[in-house]
Amino acid sequence: MNRQNMRRELTPQEVKMLALVVLASSSYPSMQNKDPQPIVSAWSLMLADIPLEILQAAVLKVCRESEFFPSVAQIVAAAAELDPRNEKLPSAAEAWEEVEQQICAAGVYKPPVFSCELVRRAARAIGWLQLCSSENPAADRAHFLRLYESMKNKRKEAREIEQVMKIAGVGDLIRALAGGKTTQEATR
Fold first, then answer.
1. What's the average model confidence in pLDDT over 37-53?
2. Is the dihedral of CA 131, 136, 137, 142 positive or negative?
3. Phi, psi (deg, nearest 5) at residue 91
4. How far is 104 from 98, CA to CA, in rounded Å?
5. Is 39 in contact with 68 (CB distance < 8 Å)?
């Protein structure tokens, strides 16, 4: 039996991925004569959580911007950027600008209003009264920027881990274990 007859049929997900791999490969001469199956298999697994429309746009974006065949990491980053469901967090500088505006607008007498929970948490961690009555705003700014970036990175890492666990199919098992169930109960 030859190798062609041993190949299995593609799943519907793999057919969609094959179309994207062929599209991407057509943009890169070095990829045009390569077997797409390993890439299709990898993309089908690692990009399964991204809706097809967003995935197509992400592949197109990366192909337009990169001289090299897109990596999964590049596609995931582009998809996150393009997905309207993702909360667009302000940069650290934009977050600090919000804090400064709220110091002027709300001061210590009114509760500050921020564009997102992360800015509120970072300002609260330093202390709103401290920020409003600071004698060293440059140090507070530096502290806020570091703290906000750290919180933003931790949030991003947690979401990435959650997505990977979901793709790998172990998210439900871990949640069940965290809820106190045994492995046997969780797998029934």
1. 90
2. negative
3. -65, 170
4. 10
5. no
The span from the CA of 60 to the CA of 53, in Å, is 11
Output the pTM of the full model. 0.64
Mark whether 118 and 159 lie in a shared domain.
yes
* Helix spans in 11-136 (H): 12-26, 37-46, 52-65, 72-82, 92-105, 117-126, 128-132
What kind and span of H or E run contains 147? helix 137-168
Same structural domain, 133 and 174:
yes
| Same domain membership, residue 119 and residue 65 | no
**What is the predicted pLDDT for the residue at 180?**
55
116 and 76 in a common domain: no
Domain count, the chain: 2
Burial environment of residue 115 by CB neighbours within 10 A (0 to 12, 13 to 18, 19 or more): middle
Higher model confidence: residue 98 or residue 9? 98
The C-alpha atoms of residue 75 and residue 72 are separated, in whole angstroms, by: 5
List the domain range (segments joined by +) for residue 106.
92-178
Task: Tell me: do 112 and 170 sit in the same domain.
Answer: yes
Cβ atoms within 10 Å of 39's Cβ, excluding its own: 21
